[in-house]
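**Sequence with structure:**
===
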Amino acid sequence: MKQPLNSRDLSASEITVAIAAGRLTAEMALRESLRRIDALEPTLRAFVERAPPDRLMEDARKLDEAPAPKGRLHGIPVAIREILDVAGLRCSWGSPIHRERIPDADAHAVARLRAEGALVVGTTVSTEYAIAAAGPTTNPHASARSPGGSSSGSAAAVAAGMVPLALGSQTIGSIVRPATYCGVYGFKPSHGTISTQGTMPLAPLLDDIGVLARSIDDIALAAEV
């Protein structure tokens, strides 16, 4: 009998394969993600708000009890930059002015991830209005250094192994810069490839949604979704 896996160092693509093979469950993958967040968040400060753990665990168990995988991201913990709307969680655009802003509906890209079985563990720190003052997030490799902006929380969360996938956004260099600073992959697709519906606009002719991950396979998987 195959031994269960620990999802700590697995990519999203590897987690989906392991779940399909019965060597891992969505609940196990989520527990490891939450454990990493609990351990590292006091120093890393990547998150604006985390989804209630009890609700997340209930969602993970429902995925495990389903007769078939929900989709291509079945059981994958993901994090979302706070300028993309996430229903029920604080999305404050990096500004104290909007610190209590809680959307009623998901942005298009977030809804696509959920529809394919992803578990949204929380919203991540952005620089103010995606361009101004930096947030509190530290670099996971050296806490005295910058994680890069402006998708800082998403890049740091992925690099620290809190989640295998995160969404970010880019108008100038806001995905590729923090990806470089944190040592992960960042993908900014051609303009308009991924809908920006439900995302704070900065410069609509330049704004794009993209993906941060620790493997190219994961970038491809999430971008296709």
DSSP finds seven helices and six strands in the chain. The CA atoms of residues 112 and 225 lie 7 Å apart. The first helix runs from residue 12 to 20.
